[in-house]
Amino acid sequence: MLHSFRTPVELDYIKLPCINRSYSGKLSPKYLGTQTDETLKLRADIILAATANFKPDLILVDKKPYGLNQELKPTINYIKQFLHSTKLVLVLRDILDSPEVTINE
Hints:
Layout: E1 19-21, E2 27-29, H1 36-54, E3 58-62, H2 73-82, E4 87-91, H3 99-104
Parallel strand pairs: 3-4
Antiparallel strand pairs: 1-2
């Protein structure tokens, strides 16, 4: 979604492969012709590699503290160990799911 907006010249971001979630909670790749577990691993690997190489000042985390399917855990551990000045910010929005789904998450 961010790619739809004009951003300052000095701001950059990385787009992760999209994941769909069915009403039953099942995850699946939206566009890639890969298996779900491969896509989730790719997302986690991209996040970690980008963090290690670019050493960002700030990382915005949307909705889930550890990301989708815990994909941020390796990156958070890396930040704690090597990037003490990188700030992690959890972005919380309105409740998007039904009460039952929200309680289970």
